[in-house]
Design a protein that fits this description.
Layout lengths: L11 H12 L2 H13 L3 H28 L6 H8 L2 H15 L1 H15 L7 H16 L3 H29 L12 H5 L2 H14 L15 H30 L2 H4 L11 H10 L1 H36 L16 H17 L2 H29 L14 H20 L1 H20 L19
Helix pairs in contact: 1-8, 1-11, 1-14, 2-10, 3-10, 3-11, 3-16, 3-17, 4-5, 4-16, 5-14, 5-16, 5-18, 6-7, 6-14, 6-15, 7-14, 7-15, 8-11, 8-14, 10-16, 10-17, 13-14, 14-15, 16-17, 16-18, 17-18
Length: 451
C-alpha cells in the first residue's frame, strides 16, 4: 500500500482499506444464522454468497465509472443530483445522513458489545455507545491519523480472517459437502433465497465507500475505481471462504438463529470455540471486536462527507458542512454519532438490517441506472475508467436488485415501508429547505476511450 501523500489526502491503500473495512463487519458474522432459518442446503448457501458478490461487483464497475468521471464527495447524493434531479439526490443524501451509515455503525457497535461481553461482562448498550463515541473522536483528529488508523486495523482484519480460514480448511470436517443436490435449484428459485439475499446484500454493502470521499482521495480518477474494484474482489473471496469454514466446523443447529427470538448469533465465537476450545474462542471474540472497530471507523469517515456535500448546496444547513483547519467535518461526525447511538438504543437488529438494506438497494440501483443514462446524455464526458462489461454488468445489477426489492416488499412489507417512509420524508424536506443553485456536471472533455 502506498504512503500518505503530502496534501494528506487518502492514498489508494487508505481508500481500498476504507472499502474493505466498510464491507467486512456485522454482516459476515451474523448473516448465516438468519439464512439457515429458510435454507438448509449448504450448496445453496455458498451460491447465495457468490451471487451476492457478483451483483456487488457489477455495481462496483458502474460506480467506478461515475466516481472517476465525477470525482466529488457525496456518493449517490452527488451522482443522482447531477444525472437525474436534485430531489432524487437529496433523498439519497437524506437516507445516507439518517440511516445509511448510522444504522450499520449502530449494528456493528451492538455486535462488538455482544462479542466483548463474551470475555468482559459489561453492559452491552453502554459498551456500544462508548465505542461509537471513541471511534468518532479518533477520526475527527485529522485525515492523516484517520488514514493510518484505517489501514492498520483493516490489514489486521484481513490477515486474521485469512489465518482463520486456513485453520478452518485444515481442521474442519472433511465430510461436509457443498456439491449441489436435488434441492439446490428449487432453493435458489425460492423466496427464502431472496430473503437470504437481504443479509448478503447488507454484508456486501460498503463496496461503494470510496465514492463518498472521492474529492479527498489522491488522484481520484485512478484511485476511486481501483479501490472499489480491488476492495470488492477481496471481500467477495473472503466471504465465500469464511462461510465455508463456518459450515465445515459448526453444526447447522448451533449456527441458526432461533426463529422465535430472531436474536443474532455470534458465529465467530461459536466456530472458534469448536475449532480451538473455549479459551481461544474467547480470544477470537476480542479479535472480531478489532474487525468491527475497523468497520465502524470506515463508516464514520464516509458518512459525514454526504452531510457535508448536502450542506454545501443548502444554506440553511450550511453549518454542517464546515470543516476546520484539518479539513475534517467534525460537526457532521457528531450528528452521525448521535443518530447511531439513538438507533443502538431503540432498533431491533433484524428490522434495522432489513429496512436499511431495502432503501440502500433502491438508491444504488438508481445510481447504476445513471451510468446508462449518462452514456446517452453526456457521451463526450471524460471517463478515465469505463464500466467493465457495459451494458451487461449494469443491467445485471439493476434486474437483480429490482427482483430482490420486489420479493422483499412482499415478504417483509413492514420493514420495507419503514424505509420508504424515511425516504419520502426526505422528499418532503427537499421542498421545504431553501437551496442554492446546484453545480453543473464536471466540465465535459472529449475522450479517446471506446466502449
Amino acid at each position: 500500500m502506498t504512503s500518505e501523500v503530502k496534501d494528506t489526502k487518502y492514498s489508494l491503500g487508505s481508500a481500498t482499506s476504507i472499502v474493505v473495512a466498510n464491507m467486512i463487519g456485522t454482516g459476515i458474522f451474523v448473516s448465516l444464522g438468519y439464512q439457515l432459518i429458510g435454507i438448509k442446503d449448504l450448496a445453496t448457501i455458498i451460491i447465495l454468497w457468490i451471487v451476492g458478490g457478483i451483483i456487488a461487483l457489477c455495481g462496483a464497475f458502474a460506480y467506478s465509472e461515475l466516481g472517476a468521471s465525477m470525482p466529488n464527495s457525496g456518493g449517490e447524493y452527488h451522482f443522482l443530483s447531477k444525472i437525474f434531479h436534485p430531489s432524487l439526490g437529496f433523498m439519497s443524501g437524506w437516507l445516507s445522513s439518517t440511516i445509511g451509515f448510522s444504522a450499520p455503525i449502530a449494528l456493528n457497535a451492538i455486535l462488538f458489545a455482544s462479542y466483548f461481553s463474551q470475555v468482559f461482562p459489561f453492559n452491552k448498550t453502554l459498551v456500544a455507545i462508548v465505542l461509537i463515541i471513541l471511534i468518532t473522536f479518533v477520526n475527527s483528529i485529522n485525515r492523516s491519523a484517520s488514514g493510518r488508523f484505517q489501514k492498520i486495523f483493516t490489514l489486521l482484519k484481513v490477515v486474521i480472517i485469512v489465518a482463520f480460514i486456513v485453520a478452518g480448511m485444515v481442521l474442519g470436517n472433511e465430510q461436509v459437502s457443498f456439491i449441489p443436490v436435488a434441492d439446490t435449484l428449487p432453493n435458489i428459485l425460492s423466496s427464502n433465497f431472496v430473503i437470504g439475499l437481504v443479509y448478503v446484500s447488507f454484508a456486501y454493502s460498503g463496496w461503494n465507500a470510496s465514492a463518498y470521499i472521492s474529492s479527498e482521495i489522491h488522484k481520484p480518477h485512478r484511485n476511486v475505481p481501483l479501490s472499489i474494484i480491488i476492495g470488492t474482489l477481496i471481500v467477495m473471496l473472503l466471504y465465500v471462504l469464511i462461510n465455508v469454514v463456518f459450515l465445515k466446523i459448526a453444526p447447522i443447529e448451533m449456527l441458526m438463529v432461533d426463529p422465535s427470538k430472531m436474536e443474532q448469533k455470534e458465529l465467530g465465537f461459536i466456530t472458534a470455540s469448536i475449532l480451538f476450545g473455549d479459551r481461544i474462542g474467547a480470544l477470537m471474540s476480542l479479535v472480531i471486536c478489532l474487525f468491527l472497530v475497523s468497520s465502524i471507523s470506515s463508516m464514520v469517515i464516509a458518512g459525514p462527507r454526504v452531510i457535508q456535500s448536502i450542506a454545501s448546496d443548502y444554506p440553511i444547513i450550511g453549518i454542517l458542512g464546515r470543516r476546520d483547519n484539518e479539513k475534517v467535518p467534525r460537526l457532521s461526525m457528531l450528528i452521525q454519532a448521535i443518530i447511531a447511538i439513538a438507533i443502538a438504543l431503540t432498533g431491533s437488529f433484524d428490522t434495522v438490517i432489513t429496512y436499511t438494506t431495502f432503501t440502500m438497494t433502491l438508491f444504488s440501483t438508481l445510481t447504476v441506472m445513471g451510468t446508462i443514462v449518462l452514456r446517452k446524455t453526456e457521451p463526450n464526458l471524460k471517463r478515465p475508467y469505463r464500466t467493465f462489461g457495459y451494458p451487461f454488468t449494469p443491467i445485471i445489477f439493476i434486474l437483480a436488485n429490482c427482483w430482490f426489492m420486489y420479493y422483499l416488499f412482499l415478504n417483509k412489507m413492514d420493514e420495507a415501508l419503514i424505509g420508504l417512509i424515511i425516504v419520502l420524508s426526505g422528499l418532503l424536506l427537499f421542498y421545504i429547505v431553501p437551496k442554492r443553485k446546484l453545480n453543473n456536471l464536471p466540465q465535459i472533455e472529449p475522450t479517446n476511450n471506446i466502449n
